[in-house]
Structures are given as structure tokens and as C-alpha cells.
Recover the amino acids of this structure.
């Protein structure tokens, strides 16, 4: 079945005038393309999302009134996906309620703190079929998930002076033919779809390559870059700009104005109280890597830069100094 035929049948399936017999006929034709499940990656520490990520996984952040991962789970359920696997790690117990609330499958990654997300995918290879691979911290304005998908893809967004992303080029069929860090017109972001053939190939590659130490510390996209000749992913352009990701607290503030003067964070309140300012006056918050491995970030107040170091999170002890 070519893409045109797929789209025609998919369109007919959703016509309300269809009889049940016709609907079943269309469903049978589309059955090889039916999405089996989704894997949501939620194990990482999200250090760039300081200080909100210090006491809560980023995927549990409430954005525009909804918890990020819950919004995503609901969108998957709306698309008819019943098997949803959530890979946890950092503060994993905070995700436990999702099992009862949504009947999701929780799998804990004990290596989240020392390896990258290949260490999450290696735990769920048996679930890879016609599968969405999602990040718990994405926010979709509209539901991007479908009951049926034609081919493997990676969403790409149009570049508007974005940095620190994977940039892609693709041919006239939208097959991705290059991924780099050197800038470009499009960059990767959002829910990925693997069809069964892609899943089979990727599973074989990851199982074989995971013995390498560098692979354990890789994002899975880096492994894909190594084996692009064997893994076909097509670019799916986010023309409506519905995919959002917030790498930092400042980026979240731009998207959700309720965080501009956010009062529900002890660390932000500590800073505001220290300088006798409002939370909205704290800006340019950036993760800071300490040699002593303590949680720390830089920030600005009144155009001056300071360093906040967490000495004891539970007892609210900290060090604050100018830089």
C-alpha cells in the first residue's frame, strides 16, 4: 500500500456515514499499520530545568493547568492506545500513582544517573513494535497521536534561531539523510514513531552495541546517526507548531505566564527573600556543574549574576554567592 492509498483508506475509515461492515473492511486493510503501544521516557534528572527539577521530575510539571505526562497519556488514550509504558528513574516513586490512575506499565531504570536514554530503551526493547517513543516533558497543543501510522518518522520543527538541537536534512520523499549539530532549516523534536521493521532493526543494533561504554552514555539519536544506513526515519514537519519543549525554567515562563512570578518553589522564594525582590525579578537561570557534585545554578537579579548551591535540600540549607 502506498501513502496515497493509506491516506484515502484512513480518511474513509473516519467518515461517519460508513456502515460497520465497511469500517471493519477498512480496519482490516489498515491492520498492519495499527499502532501497538507507546513508550514514554521519564527517567532523566533534567538538570537544565533547575530549580523546579530538584524536587520533582520534569514530566510532572504542571503546564497550563495540566501535568505534562498526564496530558500526554490522555492524548495517547484518546488515540486508542491501551498499552503505555513509562520508563522512570529519577524520583521514580513520584510516578507510582500513574499505574492506578491510567493503568500504565512502570519500568524503573536504575542507571538513570550515570547513563543516557539508551539505558532506558534497552529495558523496553520487547515492547518495540509499531510504537511511539515519547519524552515525558513534551507539550502538544493538539493531539499528535493516531490509531494508525504509515511509516517511521521523527517530527522536525522549522528552525528559528534555535541552538543545541539535532538538525536534519531530508530528500524529496522526506527520508532523513543527515543529522548534525551544525545548524540548519529543521531540527528534531517530539514524538517518534517506529514501525515494526524499524523496531526490529533498532533492537538488533542496540542489543549489539550496548556493550560499548560510549553507547550507554548516548542519547539514542546518536546511535541512530551511526546507523542511518540501516534505519529509515522520515521527517514529519510540525507545520502547525504544536510541539513544545522547555529546556529551562525561563523557557517555561515564556510559554506559561503563571510561572513568571511563581510562588510555589522554596528555592525561588529563598532567593526572593534574600534579595528582597519578587520571583519575577529572578532570571537567566542556568544549571551549574559543581566539582563537588552539589546541585547548583546561576541566576541574575538586578543584572548581577549569582550562584545558588543546594547544601541540604530537605532542610532548606543553601549557599548563595556572587559570580
Amino acid at each position: 500500500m502506498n501513502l496515497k492509498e493509506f491516506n484515502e483508506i484512513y480518511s474513509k475509515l473516519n467518515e461517519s456515514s460508513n456502515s460497520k461492515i465497511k469500517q471493519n473492511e477498512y480496519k482490516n486493510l489498515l491492520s498492519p499499520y495499527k499502532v501497538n503501544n507507546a513508550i514514554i521516557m521519564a527517567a532523566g534528572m533534567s538538570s537544565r530545568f533547575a530549580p523546579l527539577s530538584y524536587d520533582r521530575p520534569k514530566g510532572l510539571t504542571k503546564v497550563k493547568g495540566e501535568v505534562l505526562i498526564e496530558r500526554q497519556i490522555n492524548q495517547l488514550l484518546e488515540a486508542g492506545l491501551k498499552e503505555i509504558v513509562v520508563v522512570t528513574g529519577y524520583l521514580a516513586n513520584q510516578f507510582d500513582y500513574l499505574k492506578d490512575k491510567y493503568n500504565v506499565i512502570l519500568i524503573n531504570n536504575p542507571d538513570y544517573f550515570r547513563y543516557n536514554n539508551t539505558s532506558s530503551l534497552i529495558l523496553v526493547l520487547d515492547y518495540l513494535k509499531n510504537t511511539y517513543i515519547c519524552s515525558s516533558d513534551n507539550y502538544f497543543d493538539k493531539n499528535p497521536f493516531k490509531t494508525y501510522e504509515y511509516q517511521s518518522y521523527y517530527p522536525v520543527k522549522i528552525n528559528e534561531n534555535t541552538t543545541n538541537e539535532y538538525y536534519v536534512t531530508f530528500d524529496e520523499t522526506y527520508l532523513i539523510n543527515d543529522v548534525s549539530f551544525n545548524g540548519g532549516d529543521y531540527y528534531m523534536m517530539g514524538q517518534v514513531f517506529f514501525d515494526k521493521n524499524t523496531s526490529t532493526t533498532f533492537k538488533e543494533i542496540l542489543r549489539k552495541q550496548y556493550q560499548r561504554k560510549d553507547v550507554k552514555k548516548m542519547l539514542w539519536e546518536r546511535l541512530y546517526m551511526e546507523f542511518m544506513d540501516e534505519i529509515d526515519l522520515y521527517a514529519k514537519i510540525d507545520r502547525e507548531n504544536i510541539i513544545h519543549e522547555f529546556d529551562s525554567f525561563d523557557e517555561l515562563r515564556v510559554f506559561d505566564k503563571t510561572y513568571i512570578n511563581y510562588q510555589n518553589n522554596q528555592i525561588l522564594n529563598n532567593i526572593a527573600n534574600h534579595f528582597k525582590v519578587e520571583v519575577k525579578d529572578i532570571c537567566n537561570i542556568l544549571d551549574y556543574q559543581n566539582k563537588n557534585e552539589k546541585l547548583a545554578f546561576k541566576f541574575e537579579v538586578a543584572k548581577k549574576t549569582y550562584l545558588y548551591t543546594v547544601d541540604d535540600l530537605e532542610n532548606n540549607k543553601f549557599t548563595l554567592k556572587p559570580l
Observations:
- The radius of gyration is 21 Å.
- The chain has ten helices and 18 strands.
- The chain has two domains: 34-245, 261-322.
